[in-house]
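User: Structure tokens for this complex, please. No commentary.
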Amino acid sequence: MASVTTTAPSKPPVQERGTFSKKFNFNYFVQDNVTGSRGLIIWVSFLALINLGLLFQQFNNAPGRTWIIFGIWAVTVLGTVVGELFTLHIGATRWLKENMFNSVSNALLTLLLALLVGIVVAGLWSWGVVNATFDPQLTHPDVRTFDGASWGVIWGARKLLLTGLLEPEQSWRVILWTVTILALWALSFIGTREQTRETRWGTLVRQFANVGWLLSPFLSYIFLAGLEYTEPFIDPRRLIIGTIVFSAIMGILWFFKVIQLTPITTALWVLSWPAAYLMWRGITLWNANAELFTTIDPDRWGGLLLTVIFAIFVNLLSLPIGILLALGRRADVQGIPWWILWPVAIGLTAWGLYSSTFGNCIGTIPALCENVNLWATSRNTVEQIVAFWPLLIPLATWAFLRSFNGNFLQAFSVLFIEIIRGVPLITLLFMAIIMAPFFLPEDSQGLSNFWAVIVGYTIFTSSYTAELVRGGLQAIPKGQYEAADSLGINTLQKYRFIILPQALRILIPPLAGAVIGTFKSSSLVALVGMIDLVGSTKAIIANSQWLGLRTELYVFMFVLYFLVSSIVSWYSRRLEERTGLGVR
Amino acid sequence: MTATMEGPEATKVKDVIVCRDVHKWYGDFEALKGVDLTVTAGEVVVILGPSGSGKSTFIRCMNRLEEHQEGRIIIDGIELTHDVRNISEIRREVGMVFQQFNLFPHLTVLENITLAPINVRKWTREKAEDLAVTWLTRVGIPEQADKYPGQLSGGQQQRVAIARALTMQPKILLFDEPTSALDPEMISEVLDVMRDLARAGYTIVAVTHEMGFAREVANRIIFMDGGEIVEENTPTDFFNNPTHERTKLFLSQILNH
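Assistant:
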């Protein structure tokens, strides 16, 4: 190897600046740019002809603008040619040569596009600025100008655009909510920045923001839906049953070694529900006395608010559901795993005992409310025992668990995903709003339109998310699963610590796409009568005050959708960079 | 802490691995055709054989990465059955090192090692990290603790994988071709660690193509072909006086290439 000697490659002689280029050859130039092939000749002549036609037309219509565009083009082309021929390139001409005028046809294309952009921009400018009115008083068809835009409509109809049918005196709550969420976001952003992440101050900000995010669902609910105070301050039934359910969850987590139980953590878990319940009742009572956040019917939400709420709700719900469906589709379990069946059984038992023996009816499924007051109306011991029928649920569960065989989880996931994916979103929305009441008993109030659409939309989105997540799970090498298994890590820990962190990182770009898609597709709910951003725009256009002002409103809608979507994609890129650490 | 470092913890029974007539099918293909093996505590067993002979399948059956369909496998007195609790108990006591290292790329070296002790053994973070650093020192790379696996060389990654298996304080170590994916100059650094472990008294079952290692360290050599154990012998006799024709052919092929 060492015997092979290499001579240094000879450098091309440096040409002195300002002398005629030694590389330039007129014949080659014409051949490369015009006469090289029949296709090239046709393409260049075609471009030249179109340019000529457009130039003539534009010189007649708008001579000033056209002279400016053509002049700039001619001067820059000349500059580039001189720079090229006499080796006088400076930064600007080199950039022009590489990006604008690197061949005759591209130079012609540049002129063509500049002319077209000029036409569009000039049109927009004269319509949107020069001839436009901005006064909300000047939007009525009788007084409006028809030469330009009447931007006043956006200010005049701002309430309907942003919050729909919400009472104007309640809009401060929406503003409060928006400010809270934006502030939390800003705090998270500051807390996770490269410069501040490691400092104590940054950690503090981040922890504060995390607590805020944990509380944000409750805050959002209080701000946007309000609280109602009806029950007694402390309802022992809710207290006891809630504690039982929480302790059961803890038991399962403990069994799977997700949590460790010390006397202190056990006490904390047992006390968590009573503490949360008392706090919640306290807030409710205080709110009722202060008459601050009175209840708002979700069906009154509208405009941008509704669109954003839809996007947040559906995306937040569909990710965990999608992950579960994806795991279910890959499951290799015979029968229904007991850790799914038992929580369901415990929940059903608690709910059944609550509704049948205490004479109260929660939820909105009246068929199950027929058992109301069994305990109170029971006349003898036998009937009193019957009143505790939900206690049979665990027994039935046990029998079911023993007898049911087959990969139930996979069958359920596959059926769910494939059926839902085979149905258009709009069909699901119509089914949720129009057909669901047929399945519910007549005297029930049923779901409000808002919740029906949330349910339908979430079902739709989660089946798509499930397939995305499944793709991510399949991208994780088999060795990762085997390494985790060989260390004795259980299934839950394996997915929590090893598989999902890696899979979700892979999934950031497609999930961001899905989030944006969900946000934009939510405009379909306007077709089932919801007044979201699109719905309220349609309502505004039909209003006699603003009749027919669709261009202005659609431009505004374009800007809003574009802003939110680009924020999401920017955020996903940032997330991708931040989680890209240490990936091989 | 150093006391546990000196060697493995005492096993419950003397014969830590007992395999009786183990069969394994992949569809119609019979990968293991009734394999018997008994390994006593502290023994180093090397499994040799041509590719496709079922040696990897066999040791992967010992911690249930593969399921055997017939026969019995008893690890430290616990039989491998469908019972999930048995499986997880056995996996806690059996450490495994893979050909492709299989480190978790999104976790640092230290997190890779301490994940299982903290979540499976329920140790405190301090205890787990203490032992992790001790083991990293013993395999010679304490300074790499805070790096990600992608930043290490192949030999370093495999030593991290060994430290990860050992921090769980297993009673048995399984090596599945630990040096096959390594560059030649990195093989020796991994073999040194394995030699060290063998001397410390760990029970080791290794599938490897390193004949030098087998000759020097193994107490016993198992030669497998076609899903069966063909020959079982001490290293000296195995390399010098192989009895079986198939063994002679195999040895002539790998020693005179």
